[in-house]
Amino acid sequence: MVKFIRAGVDEFEYQVNQAIKDDNNKVFVVFFGTEVDETNESWCPDCVIADPLIRKALVPVPNAVLIEAPVGHRHEWKGNVSHPYRVKYNLSAIPTLFKWSKNGPGASLVEEEAADINRLNAFVQNE
């Protein structure tokens, strides 16, 4: 069963560190556009497409942990070169799905790659 954790900028590092403490966990982090109140969906169309596919791909992965990290609303992300995730993790686009370990972010799928079910399945299954 996949464990889903939502973490804002302030608690992101704490949540990641908690998840990677257990060596059995396979930790993934997805950065995505925050949901808008009117639709309860991300303002980012690629994120809307990728989200259910990422969740589905992780279901068969033993000890999977998905940390969902919203980057904020469109005006907080677009063109903001000082966004904390851009600065700290060199994040350039959303959605971005990372494999995360004690060494930090590793392999990733970016934008439309995160919505390609074949790539997603291969990505989450490979060590």
UniProtKB/TrEMBL annotation:
Q: Which Gene3D superfamilies match?
A: Glutaredoxin
Q: Name one GO molecular function term.
A: protein-disulfide reductase [NAD(P)H] activity
One Gene Ontology cellular component annotation held by this UniProt entry: cytosol
User: Which branch of life, at top level?
Assistant: Eukaryota
InterPro entries registered for this protein in UniProt:
Thioredoxin-like_sf (IPR036249), TXNDC17-like (IPR045108), TXNDC17_dom (IPR010357)
Residues covered by the Thioredoxin domain: 8-118
Q: Which family does it belong to?
A: Belongs to the thioredoxin family.
Q: Which protein are we looking at?
A: DUF953-domain-containing protein
